[in-house]
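Record pair follows.
FIRST:
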Amino acid sequence: MVNYANGVETRGIIIDTCKKLFMEKGYKNTTYSEIYKAAMVNPGTIAHHFGNKRNIASMLYDEFMVKLTKYAEDLFPEEDDQQKAFIGLALHRKLTYENENYRRFVMEFMLDDLANEDESRYLVNDYSAYKTTCDKIGRNKANFYFIAYKGIEAAIDAYYGRYPDKETFEDLYAYYAGMYFDYLPKEEVDDRIKRALDAVSKVDISVEDFEVKAERNDK
């Protein structure tokens, strides 16, 4: 075991270790033993700092969604907040479509997290799709939307993981966007979906160990 300088450093080491293991092995197949051995900490350290593996995954997912929200805002500042929410969701769905390891993480984490009594952990105030939904229909209804759709999203990713040639990215994104934003008029949703797809076609995006990079190519 290694004696790190302080709790902040220890937490950082554990988080970085989980980022690597979750992407390489998947959330489900990453064991506590592998985490504390790779991080070179005592077995009880993970529980002390995070409670359990699910809480670490939830934090990583939350932070990831916030990063994508920031990219949508920075790359497309000319768009209104609602459209940025569509674009942020499109960026996330593009990553889950193109990156098999990240798609596996999303599917496995969400299916596991369905049993989490603290469902509010899934809801991130700074995640644009959630934030704009709260603005439109109120926080209570938005909470219902996002909690209910978590299992649906995991199930769809599981299906796509088994049959990767059955759906196009455009069709999958249109389904997700229609599901998340079905409180808006259908004509508006259809228009915003087309605009979001056009926007993400101008973005090069990649992820490695939960570090996401996105930039406009405008070619």
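SECOND:
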Amino acid sequence: MGGFEFISPFVLAALVVLPAIWWLLKLTPPRPRREVFPPLAILLSLAKRDETPAKSPWWLTLLRMALATLVVLAIANPVINPDRTEISSDGPLALLIDNGWASAEDWAARTSAADALIEAAGRADQPVALAFTADRTADTRPVSASEARQRLAAAEPQAARPERLPAASALVAALDGTPPAPSPS
């Protein structure tokens, strides 16, 4: 089992306010002053009184504090095993990267994820087959991890519609019947 990480760790700073929440939950307003108005004495004896306790029970305060803590932890986006760059070493790493016009917005995230996978393939001494969906003339044969990293760095989003099926077919043809490494579970 891998590590445990928060995607938004700065939100955990909100845990500092838990003592203030505890103080507010324990705080009760002062008791109202009682004034007797004789004509309403009969009505007061008939009406059911709503009584509020002087302080909240300890278990209710503990439950509220636990809920506040869980809300802060949930907002911090906890992730178990955040390192997803483990790859199988059964065959070459095959990457099909969409570099069409719609990928320009998150291109940096795409290339950093692909770079992490290429780095893992380099550590495992695996070849990397790299194909881009908007680049019809790219060489998709398996190459070393360093050369694949250079190709990835040179790639850019194209102002063209991505052709995913031809890119996948070129990738399969470049692998020449060698199955790509399956993704780890």
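COMMENT: The radius of gyration is 31 Å.
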